[in-house]
Design brief:
Number of helices: 3
Number of domains: 1
Radius of gyration: 18 Å
Oligomer: single chain
Shape: elongated
């Protein structure tokens, strides 16, 4: 594939923003927190809840 073809493919690819990354991270943190709660690890669940609050604040723009 030529350099021009690669550049064109990259140009047409959907753009990922920082907020998209934060949303993805928030979803991962939520899943991890739920797993920690199921496994009976309240300390880890609480720490993950704090990280979730930070992610929510970033998404809300605060």
């Amino acid at each position: 594939m030529s350099q021009a073809a690669i550049r064109e493919k990259v140009r047409q690819a959907p753009k990922v923003t920082a907020i998209d990354t934060v949303r993805y991270t928030r979803d991962m943190l939520l899943g991890l927190r739920q797993m920690a709660e199921k496994q009976g690890n309240p300390v880890l669940a609480h720490l993950l809840a704090l990280a979730l609050m930070e992610a929510e604040a970033l998404i809300a723009g605060r």
